[in-house]
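Notes on consecutive records. When two proteins share a document, each keeps its own sequence and its own token line. Never mix them. Below: protein one.
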Amino acid sequence: MRNDQKIEQKLQIIPLGGLGEIGKNMTVVRFGEEMILVDSGLMFPENDMLGVDLVIPDISYVIENQHCLKAIILTHGHEDHIGALPYILKQLSVPVYGTKLTLGILEGRLKENGVDSGNLRVVTQGEIIVLGCFSVGFIRVNHSIPDSVALSIKTPIGMIVHTGDFKFDYTPVDGKMTDFRRLADLGNKGVLVLLADSTNSEKEGHTLSEKTVGIAFNREFQNAQGRIIVATFSSNVHRIQQVIDTAVRYRRRVAVLGRSMVNVVNISLELGYIHAPEGVIIDVEDIVNYPANKIVIITTGSQGEPMSALTRMAMSDHRQVDIVQGDTVIISATPIPGNEKIVAKTIDNLLRLGANVIYSRNEGIHVSGHASREELKLMHNLIKPKFFIPVHGELHHLFAHAKLAEDLGMSRDHILVGENGFIFEFTKERGKVVGRVNWGVVLVDGLGVGDVGNIVLRDRRQLAQEGVVIVIVAMNHETGKIISEPQIISRGFVYIRDASELIDEAKNRVSQALKTCAESKIVDWSTLKIQIKDTLSQFLFESTRRRPVILPVIIEV
């Protein structure tokens, strides 16, 4: 009876990140009292998250159920899939499974954050591991970073296939193609649920091979007369390899700039994922020893990040490299949505300094790492799932992917489009949304994790938009009498010297409010501060239609 009861238990898939957004990918797979966590990614802050460095998923549901958690499984080494782990592993002590390069990059991140890496477990593509009631298989797929895998997750009621980030590249840089046979075998045996990457679900056709970027690099290197500076994502190891290969072809030395770029290149060289002839890679300090037409610099900053090496070069603020007339700068990436303006500003600054900037996708110097619609169709036809959950994308991506599945013949009631926190529940015959768990985001600001919330962000926005007014009053605490005229300091609100009448009237309003309090024998400081704040806030809004942050300071004399 117990075994029958176990077979009838329901399977739950609970996304905590990655649905309705690009990044922050994290999914719980649960059966009864056992669960695994797939990926633990971060995303970069939106424009209104002032001062915030990173955004990671709220894992309160996982913490509450950590007695059920068997392991964390990683699909590949991009930050939107592993970037939250330096913070999460301070709260959870479980095995973390991933391929060699994925864990090599993660280990570097953990060391930077002082987190123990003793729970990392290396797996190989093609391997199957058993975690409680789950059997997890690692299937080789192509992406813009080596060692990427899709996952087959065998559960007591059926098979789940999670594609991770993927595309079908028939001429991969490292020669390792997607394991089509394994995917087809899974489809022939029967798959209950498919979770598939939706990032490029609105793009027709096929995504170009990464090798086409190498062809574009060859063209630009051939034409360049001076130094070549290539900016790309530090985790795009295949792209970095093609830069090195092209540099070798044109007898150039390669220097690497940017902390994350240096770390990934060193790890990839050590683990054998990047290959370079001896002497090709040099220290950045040594570039002065070579003619300009014999140098290539690989750097971070393709997204215009304020502190990145390329941005600092564009601002003439880098201590080692100055942009000079004749430099060729290749930005081998497209801006993440929201970064367009800062990338354009970086390009403008580079052009102003005399660089030749190559940045258009039409130049062929960047291709996506995600499957377009024809590849998604092939994945669906290989897997032939009973149920489908589109993942990894904003809502319009998820709905486009759902429509694609429907066009391929899948029943609409077997396609489940959801959002973060949804509980997708399955039996062998049914799949539906049955509720929602607590979910959300945790903001990382400097060394603070989670100490910046909505109230702090609201105050930061108000400070940024309206400024701050500080009111300093010296008072006799016992009598409540003002010892001297209130002093007003303005920052980001008005320039005091140009607004003397406004400031004088503000001082009068504060004095009147305090006088009224004294007559009413109100001497409690917190009450006095509220009176000052309310009085001044109303006056300033009536006078300027602005609401600065008002900070009353009472000095006891």
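Protein two starts on the next line and is unrelated to protein one.
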Amino acid sequence: MNSRYLLLCIASVFMFIAFCDKTEAADRKTPRKKNRTELALENQKLVSLIDSLETELKKMKLEDSLSAEIQEIYENDTEQTNEFKPFEYSPEVTDSLLNIWYLHSKINDEDIEEYDMDSVIFQSDVPDQVYIERIKAMNSYITLPYNEIVKNYIILYSEKMPERIGRILGLCNYYMPIFQEIFNLYEIPEELKAMAVIESALNPTAVSRAGAKGMWQFMYGTAKIYGLKIDSFVDERMDPVASAHAAAKYLKDSYNIFGDWNLAIASYNCGAGNVNKAIRRSGGKRAFWDIYPYLPRETRGYVPAFVGALYTMTYYKEHGIVPEAIEMPVHVDTFKINRMLHLKQVNELVGISMDELHNLNPQYRHDIIPGNEREYILRIPYTYTNAFIDNEDSLYTYKSEEYFNPVTLKKIKDGGDGERIIYRVKSGDVLGRIAINYRVTVSQIKKWNNLRSNNIRIGQRLVIYRGGKAPASSAKSAKSKTSSDKNSDVKPSADGEYIVYTVKSGDTLYTIAKDYPGISAQNIMSYNGIGSNIKPGMKIKIPVKK
């Protein structure tokens, strides 16, 4: 039973009661008018009934599962096709970074060669039979497939980026035991820990173009559903431990829906709605490789990438990869904080470096733990535990007037959380109402989206920075690409404006697309009717998003 059905039943009951009252009144020759006391008692009974029903709805907690996501998609189907119609999928709206060479990963600043995994075919001296035997020997609880697509990703991770993988493996020594413990708590396979590698390269502060954040790359709405705290001071998507708990809940919910771990993994990338759509289009088949052709293009490589990452984490020695030594504390102690505390107070009195505090507590956006609002956790290296305890009484008052200046705190709160949101315009929406809901101004929305008037259309997507706290470059990035790019020229067409871009040496569709907000490589291919192969000097059209 779901909330919609239950509410329908409630409405039916009330309609039946009203019908009975009318019938009873009609049968009486001289219907008696109820006095004020009787009406008050009747009203009180109805209020009590509604309160009890609301309590039962809360107990059901439908909003905390992926089932609610699918139900919401179904109920929002304005075309009444009885089909799940999730938001249009594109690299800009996915929760996943997919490939570890994406530039959002900041393990190091070196350039990483990009590959078009749909067209490249890697070669290796390792025979197929060796790969097959090694995968079998892993004895994974999750079915790990092997074919040419999976082989390509295995070679990518194990042979094409040894230095980058070495750094990631160094981080694995610290993070993977934490993830294993959490996943065991939720009784889901430990192997799922490899997803953090393909999501963010184990970077707790990774941020995608779509606004997905953290090591597990949660979008704002999904993070909220799974209990992560996000406000002006804290973003728990950046907390590797808290976000791993949320990821475990998501994956467990997804498995309960699909009954297959490979489908659960795929849904983490593109959402349960897209997986459900692929299942329908395949004729109801529920195996990953059966629905593979019907999945979003980027998601098709997600499970093969997972196998490739998990294989490399297991057999890196056989490929001569050496984990890099990462300076993370072997033992960490945690303290419950119930008062306002600044990391600099801990730094100056306890002696822990700010780098160490940031590495262990990346969720605190302004180095402030707002413990007066609710209880939060502070993680410090175990070697500083005694020093923290010795100074705990004086920590909270040390330079408190400087670090908790009311003007500074108000500025942080008034600035909102700065979350980048892609808002889809609904019927009845106006810019003023949208601006109020997200604590921004109409002029800010127009500036971020290059709108010349207040007119918006149903289905239009608007970029909004919650609270008005936008990156400095966001307001001008789209404009600069449509008016001042020396390598392009804006032209009109039947379906809107487009930019004529001349391909330069070293360009790929991905690198071109990332310079145009709201445009993906798939958009460019579809608009031009071309494949992924492009050559220097070639002119392509790039649609202008408005």
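For the record: Residues 254 and 264 are 5 Å apart (CA to CA).
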